[in-house]
Design goal:
By secondary structure, the protein is mostly beta strands. The chain has one domain (2-136). The protein is built from two helices and ten strands. The chain has helices at residues 22-25, 79-83; strands spanning 2-3, 6-8, 12-15, 18-21, 26-34, 37-44, 57-71, 85-92, 112-118, 123-136. It is globular. The two termini are 26 Å apart.
């Protein structure tokens, strides 16, 4: 898997030297699928701790997808928990039976999936050739 970003501390990513706090500063909006491409969308959260120059939205574009795994979160969870990322991690494809752990790894290895774990228990795990992070100012 190739990426244009790195994972920092399993709750954030770094893009071109900029730290992007996915846990505190962004809300998960949803995802779109299109043949071999999946797009995961986040928008800027609301709060007085958000920097004025923070990105307005983020999209993770997964290209040439060959594996996808989605688990819905707890329907009784608070809305903020369904939007809040808990951890983001690169995880080995040979361990696809494990979908509740994380590995402190900055860059993916060749056969890794990208896994997102949310506060409500939702899991998104995708294996693909390339993930591109696109930001909107």
């Amino acid at each position: 898997m190739e990426t244009n970003f790195e994972i920092e501390e399993n709750y954030a990513v770094q893009l071109n030297g900029t730290h992007i706090d996915l846990h505190n500063n962004f809300d998960f909006i949803g995802y779109e699928t299109n043949e071999k491409k999946i797009t995961i969308v986040f928008k800027q959260a609301e709060g007085d701790w958000i920097k004025k120059d923070e990105f307005k939205a983020l999209k993770f574009e997964f290209k040439n997808v060959f594996y996808e795994y989605f688990v819905d979160g707890d329907p009784k969870a608070a809305e903020e928990d369904s939007q809040r990322l808990g951890e983001i991690t690169f995880f080995p494809a040979e361990s696809r039976g494990i979908n509740d752990g994380f590995i402190p790894q900055v860059k993916p290895k060749l056969n890794d999936d990208l896994m997102m774990l949310f506060e409500d228990g939702k899991v998104i795990r995708i294996g693909c050739e390339k993930v591109e992070l696109i930001v909107e100012k």
